[in-house]
């Protein structure tokens, strides 16, 4: 017989089970569902397309089987994760959710429609979140009767593998909703970085020069793709060079993010897209997925030929100047994000190491290089080009004057 104590314990445990509704079972939605289900949440995964739901279910089965093969999980764990997810074809089925995360097509009008319908079904205190990469959370929240329950919860692809999640409160979001969201995502064993509701949040803003400055260096004829990649990998310890990475992400996708950020920042020249990438995208040279991008790919998605540039072929001083130029532009972007209170110094550095696997946080890197180095490198670029793109962040200048470090 179960005693009163045990009964209340069970009840307590049951009431702690979180019901999570996920809208959209594509790349991101299905990954987020896996993360939540693995953490013990009861997940309802909804999509308007039955084919997308079937695909998500089959994909999860495959992923879990692979994890069994690698002895990372056993059959019991597989069953537990699978039984935590149900696949539903009506938004109404999400009615008992404590948290919903939307991961549908990146279109504000479609998202707004779904959000306002969803709000009519869910309970009063259900948090309604969006995984959007480029829309403002304020504009999505505005479609709700209770906009204070809306928040951005931005995962990175693939969601089960990438440690970082950006949590973005809109100006309407209540403190309680923000804190609960941070708590839930941390319980899912993710690293949370809280970001202001501004274009690109942290990662998609701060990372822009990695691509943009590298493209600019190429366009100026300073070096070819392989040399630029080699410089950043060998001297900067980045896992992938910018051109390899753009090919991996897809030149169409990467170009669109840059263009969206550029437009959203009222055409700040710092984020100006490059014609090279636009032309590659227009030509269908999308990268790995199309078999051709900055490099050629074989049927297994491997680069044809060697990427090794022997140091004798690359003058060390050329490689250093390429690496330093891209690095200082990244540092400038990170410092400016801190200057404008987009996130804390810790969160900015965590975002780049956990979200895009940078070898070091950019602000910690600035400390290592020294503020005087950062300021003089940027001033040198500015003096050479006289373009606003190379303006040094006022924060770097101030810290240099005051002899301060970020950490
Ligand atoms: P996807 O195209 O793989 O999946 C979208 C899914 O939403 C599809 O299965 C589609 O059938 C479904 N859908 C479309 N309209 C719907 C509606 N009205 N109701 C229910 N389901 C609907 O897209 P993906 O890549 O998963 O992106 C989803 C969201 O996540 C977008 O907002 C995107 O900006 C964001 N995001 C994407 C990342 C990526 O690397 N793919 C990374 C981080 C965020």
- Net shape: globular
Ligands in the model, by name, code or SMILES, are: 1,4-dihydronicotinamide adenine dinucleotide
Helix content: 40-55%
Q: What is the class of the largest domain in the CATH system?
A: Mainly Alpha
Instruction: Specify the CATH architecture of the largest domain.
Output: Orthogonal Bundle
**Biggest sheet: strand arrangement:** 3-2-1-4-5-6-7-8
Give unreliable regions as ranges. 10-14
Q: How many distinct helices?
A: 18
Classify the fold: give the CATH topology of the largest domain: N-(1-d-carboxylethyl)-l-norvaline Dehydrogenase, domain 2
Radius of gyration: 23 Å
Main sheet overview: 8 strands, mixed
What is the number of domains? 2
Average pLDDT figure? 94
Structural class of the helix and strand makeup?
A: alpha/beta
Total number of strands: 8
Topology as a string of helices (H) and strands (E): HEHEHHEEHEHEEHEHHHHHHHHHHH
Beta-strand portion reads 5-15%
End-to-end CA span: 58 Å
């Amino acid at each position: 017989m179960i005693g009163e104590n045990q009964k209340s314990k069970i009840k307590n445990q049951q009431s702690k089970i979180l019901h999570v509704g996920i809208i959209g079972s594509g790349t991101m939605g299905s990954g987020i569902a896996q993360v939540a289900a693995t953490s013990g949440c009861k997940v309802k995964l909804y999509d308007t397309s039955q084919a997308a739901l079937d695909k998500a279910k089959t994909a999860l089965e495959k992923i879990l089987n692979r994890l069994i093969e690698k002895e990372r999980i056993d059959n019991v764990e597989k069953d537990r994760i699978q039984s935590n997810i149900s696949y539903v074809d009506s938004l109404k089925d999400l009615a008992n959710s404590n948290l919903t995360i939307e991961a549908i097509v990146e279109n504000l009008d479609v998202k707004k429609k779904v959000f306002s319908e969803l709000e009519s079904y869910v309970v009063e205190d259900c948090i309604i979140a969006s995984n959007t990469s480029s829309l403002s959370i304020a504009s999505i929240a505005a479609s709700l009767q209770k906009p204070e329950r809306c928040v951005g919860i931005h995962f990175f692809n693939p969601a089960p593998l990438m440690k970082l999640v950006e949590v973005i409160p809109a100006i309407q979001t209540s403190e309680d909703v923000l804190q609960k969201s941070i708590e839930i995502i941390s319980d899912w064993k993710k690293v949370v970085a809280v970001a202001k509701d501004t274009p690109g949040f942290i990662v998609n803003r701060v990372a822009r020069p990695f691509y943009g400055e590298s493209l600019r260096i190429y366009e100026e004829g300073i070096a070819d793709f392989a040399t630029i990649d080699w410089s950043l990998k060998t001297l900067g310890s980045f896992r992938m060079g910018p051109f390899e990475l753009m090919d991996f992400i897809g030149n169409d996708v990467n170009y669109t993010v840059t263009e969206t950020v550029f437009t959203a920042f009222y055409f700040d020249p710092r984020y100006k897209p490059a014609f090279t990438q636009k032309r590659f995208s227009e030509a269908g040279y999308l990268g790995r997925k199309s078999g051709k991008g900055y490099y050629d790919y074989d049927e297994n998605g491997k680069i044809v030929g060697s990427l090794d540039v022997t140091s004798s072929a690359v003058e060390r001083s050329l490689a250093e100047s390429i690496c330093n130029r891209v690095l200082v532009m990244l540092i400038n972007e990170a410092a400016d994000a801190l200057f404008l209170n987009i996130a804390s110094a810790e969160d900015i550095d965590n975002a780049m190491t956990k979200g895009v696997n940078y070898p070091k946080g950019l602000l910690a890197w600035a400390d290592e290089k020294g503020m005087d180095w950062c300021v003089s490198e940027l001033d040198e670029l500015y003096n050479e080009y006289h373009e606003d793109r190379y303006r040094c962040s006022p924060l770097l200048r101030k810290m240099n004057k005051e002899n301060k470090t970020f950490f």
